[in-house]
Design brief:
This protein is an alpha/beta fold. It has twelve helices and eleven strands. Helix content is about 40%, strand content about 10%.
């Protein structure tokens, strides 16, 4: 299945977006947790309705992880293998491809002080085994990308960090991703990405922005050509007061924009993870981001990384509200791409303010406004 509208080739709706029970630090889950098989059925429904073409997952979204049995997926008779086969059959029947596989190194309490950057070598070893398991699961689903997102690889107290070692630990962990893929002969992965984030759940992260991630890839990894960045826009970059247009422009100039994670955000706040275009700000920035991608000539996957508003989690229709969320994300994408397509190349003699106002009028369909009261 293909989408191929404007700069977007596929729309990916991940398991973590659909299955989110809508808890937050100040209140428990609003919705019941549904099984990964039920989430797969909702994603398949979205594909059949024409709202998406692909999906992504954290390993823990699909099957639980037992640190005492880190290779359970290799046993075809295990509950893990049976569940993975059932999910794959549902996705395949709906024609849903898999864009990304992500190792969850943030949920389990063992990794509360980090995963690949944990100061305890035994926990770094365990994190590596979990990454290997995720890569195997991704291979089973023919995932195109492996994502490392910074998760809990960060700190609250900088004096406790081994600054002379921590980035080497991270490089070792990510270099091992490439090594393991090639040792196992996995041919599904076209690349891997780093997803930066400035803070939350930790006070600070070791790779807070796309610039940090790109610099780390180019300066520290043995196979930088395999690695890119998947910025979360508007959320993660906006948390650090970065602008999405600058982010995509910079990453494209380095040929490091592998794909986008997409949602909406209030600048400088916690990770809102609003659905695309939802919230009091960000419309203009989002539209101009897509305009810039069109101008550059970039084409790639748009993967949602957001959830419904907590107030919209309908206890009385827990499947229906999730379907509305999927549909709303698709509608928002269509709106953003359509508005970006309205903006024309500015005339060189115009002032910067005139260019910006003209683009806003074009976006809003108000070309006739002149400012003359007569």
């Amino acid at each position: 299945m293909e989408y191929n509208k404007s700069c977007v080739t596929l729309r990916s709706m991940p398991f973590w977006c659909v299955g989110n029970p809508m808890s937050d630090p100040f209140g428990g889950a609003v919705l019941d947790r549904i099984s990964s098989v039920e989430v797969a059925r909702l994603i398949a429904w979205g594909a059949k309705e024409g709202y998406l073409e692909a999906t992504g997952f954290h390993d823990d979204d699909l099957v639980p992880w037992d640190p005492d049995n880190p290779e359970d997926d290799l046993d075809p008779s295990s509950e893990t293998s049976r569940t993975l086969r059932e999910i794959k059959a549902i996705l395949d029947a709906a024609g849903v491809s898999v864009n990304s596989a992500v190792c969850s190194l943030h949920g389990n309490k063992l990794f509360r002080n980090g995963g690949l950057c944990n100061p305890d070598p035994e926990l770094r070893r365990l994190a590596r085994l979990k990454v290997e398991r995720t890569l195997r699961i991704g291979n089973f689903f023919n995932a195109k990308h492996y994502i490392y997102w910074v998760a809990r690889d960060g700190f609250e107290v900088p004096l406790t960090v081994k600054w002379d070692e921590v980035y080497d630990w991270l490089a070792d962990g990510l270099n091992h991703v490439w090594d393991y893929i090639h040792e196992q002969g996995f041919t599904n992965y076209v690349g891997a990405t780093v997803e930066p984030k400035p803070n939350e759940p930790r006070g600070q992260m070791f790779l807070p922005t796309s610039g940090h991630a790109a610099g780390f890839i180019l300066g520290k990894l043995r196979h930088p050509e395999f690695w890119g960045v998947n910025p979360e826009l508007l959320q993660h970059e906006s948390m650090a007061l970065m602008n999405a247009v600058m982010t995509v422009g910079y990453l494209c100039s380095l040929n490091k924009l592998k794909f986008l994670h997409f949602g909406s955000q209030i600048k400088a706040q916690f990770d809102n993870d609003f659905p695309p275009l939802i919230g009091p700000e960000g419309l203009k920035e989002t539209v101009q981001m897509f305009w810039a991608l069109n101008q550059i000539g970039w084409k790639g996957v748009l993967e949602y990384d957001c959830h419904m508003l907590r107030a919209e989690a309908d206890i009385g229709d827990q499947i229906g509200c999730r379907k509305v969320f999927i549909r709303n994300c698709a509608v928002a994408t269509e709106i953003a791409l359509a508005l970006a397509g309205r903006i024309r190349q500015p005339e060189p003699q115009q002032s910067q303010s005139a260019v910006d106002l003209a683009a806003t009028m074009q976006m809003c369909g108000l070309d006739g406004i002149t400012g003359n009261r007569r």
